[in-house]
Amino acid sequence: MTYDKKAETVFTVAGWEESVLEDIDGTGNERNGTYYPDRGVTRATVRYAYSGDIEGEGVVHYLMTYKSGDAPVVAVERFTGSIGGAEGTCVLLHRGSHQAEQVDDAVEVVEGMGTGALETLRGEATITLGGHSDDGYGFTLHYTL
Prior knowledge:
The chain is mostly beta strands and 145 residues long. It contains no helices and 11 strands. The chain has one domain (5-144): AOC barrel-like (Beta Barrel). The chain has an 8-stranded antiparallel beta barrel. It is elongated, with a radius of gyration of 16 Å.
């Protein structure tokens, strides 16, 4: 699909709460006070702070799998703020995978879920993260209003 605008942004993690839904083998490890199963499913609620062409906050509800190799992740995010100066809210669908220090995520705007100046928003982005960054993570949203 083609879009006529692009917004470049950096997001940082403003909050992360994760809990185990299914622990397949009963084995795992704890990092920073959170238990992660070797194989299993977790639920995480994460708050992201965005700055740049996208300004605001996103609240993301992840379902994450853990296993060796690529482990699938799906999520729905409610964003509140502005994209390219247009203010409102929208919903983003995340579909990706993670392993060790690598995250690959395809993000798609859920059409018909926007409010305010983002009511007709359509768009998508691809995010690839390679490890932890205290400075945040960048991505580009290609979109149409």
